[in-house]
Design goal:
This protein has helices spanning about 15-20, 45-50, 60-65, 75, 90-105, 135-145, 165-170, 195-200, 210-220, 270-280, 285, 310, 345-360, and strands at about 5-10, 30-35, 70, 85, 110, 150-155, 175-185, 225, 230, 240-245, 250-260, 295-300, 320-325, 335-340. It is an alpha/beta fold and about 375 residues long. The protein has a 6-stranded parallel beta sheet with strand order 3-2-1-4-5-6, with helices on both faces. It has a 6-stranded mixed beta sheet with strand order 10-7-11-14-13-12, covered by helices on one side. The longest helix is centred in the N-terminal third of the chain and has 13 residues, at about 90-105.
């Protein structure tokens, strides 16, 4: 099959580099356009990332010689790519305006940035969970007068540790009323150069700006419904979070306690929860999307798992790995979950979003 030409905005940053690396041998997509800040514009990609290429040993040859363009020059992207992955690192309002400019110019945007996550008619997509939110794209385009362009975003990386286990239980008829989540987040989540080494070595930083608000609220939009061309957030679960930065390179861990919104006799046993998680599958698996994990949720039985160094690459970094499921003395159950923050939580998660869009026909005619 002929591959779809794609662009990467913010291509020189850490997430942009991850996109470049993961797309090197993708069966459906081919990187033909790279864009970044004006200081990188006009350089070959290999020159622009010289001495700060962070993903693997070598820069993919197919991209190394591409000339980096100014991401602000939307007109330059026309004709060079069918859609773009956005890994922009700018002020939020500037990102919001720039992504809209691409969509207005008939270039769909599959975004990692947070700027449009709370735009009411922009799907904040985890393909296994809220694929039905893609139905709002028609209203998004009509409201703005866009023709072929649209915007889809992915949620914050820390949510990936608990959203699929949560959704699996809700979908199985075990709604969750309240959750307490404590995250232990990897340093790569701060980008490059990120947190200074003196602050991270032999240390835990108990605050990440804006992270707790995202962890507590974004899940409600993902679990929400569509009404009048907009996404309406779900009322539950209530989430209380504490987000910390720990000296781990990749892999976000979360300690989760859950209370079910059910009478005592209707709450699931630990065995029932494991059954629900082990059998969890959804549309990406049904469609056999290239980046979809065969097993979205993987349960480890060892008492000391999951661990970032041992488990983050499970299912090519796209699974939620769960361990230590047990009863909770305050709520109902508690467990430890792990996800790969720069794969499922960032670039490969964005690629999976694009694969679903292609499979559902949203790129037809581009």
């Amino acid at each position: 099959m002929n591959k779809i030409a794609v662009g990467v905005l913010g291509a020189t940053g850490m997430v942009g580099q991850r996109y470049i690396a993961l797309l090197e041998h993708h069966p459906w997509f081919e990187v033909t356009y790279v864009a970044a800040s004006p200081r990188s514009a006009g350089k070959q990609y290999a020159q622009a990332v010289a001495h700060r290429w962070l993903i693997g040993e070598n820069i993919p040859r197919s991209v190394a010689s591409l000339v980096v363009h100014d991401a602000n020059d939307v007109a330059c992207a026309r004709g060079k790519c069918a859609f773009v992955f956005s890994a922009l690192e700018m002020e939020k309002e500037a990102i919001k305006q720039l992504e809209s400019s691409y969509a207005e110019s008939d270039i769909p945007v599959v975004s990692n940035a947070s700027a449009n996550r709370w735009t009411e008619d922009v799907p904040m997509l985890i393909p296994e969970i809220n694929f039905s939110h893609l139905d709002v794209i028609a209203s998004q385009k009509k409201t703005r007068g866009w023709n072929k362009g649209f915007i889809v975003v992915k949620p914050n990386c820390s949510l990936q540790t608990y959203m699929m286990p949560l959704h699996a239980l809700v979908q199985a008829g075990f709604p969750v009323k309240r959750m307490i989540v404590t995250t232990l987040q990897a340093t790569s989540g701060a980008g490059y150069p990120g947190v200074p080494s003196f602050d991270m070595l032999d240390n835990v930083v108990p605050f990440i700006s804006g992270e707790e608000e995202k962890t507590e609220k974004e899940c409600l939009k993902i679990l929400g419904s569509i009404a009048d061309g907009k996404i309406v957030t779900a009322p539950l679960p209530l989430v209380s979070s504490t987000c910390t930065r720990v000296p781990v390179v990749d892999g976000h861990t979360a300690c989760v306690s859950m209370e079910f919104d059910l009478p005592s006799g209707k709450k699931p046993s630990l065995a029932e929860i494991e059954r629900v998680w082990n059998s969890y599958s959804s549309l990406p698996q049904e469609l056999s999307l290239p980046s979809a994990p065969l097993h979205p949720i993987v349960i480890r039985s060892e008492e000391n798992r999951p661990q970032p160094r041992r488990d983050r690459e499970t299912e090519k970094g796209m699974a939620c790995v769960i361990g230590r499921l047990r009863n909770c003395n305050v709520f109902d159950v508690k467990f430890v979950a792990l996800s790969h923050n720069t794969k499922r939580g960032a670039a490969r998660g964005g690629i999976l979003n694009a694969e679903l869009l292609k499979a559902k026909g949203f790129f037809d005619g581009l």
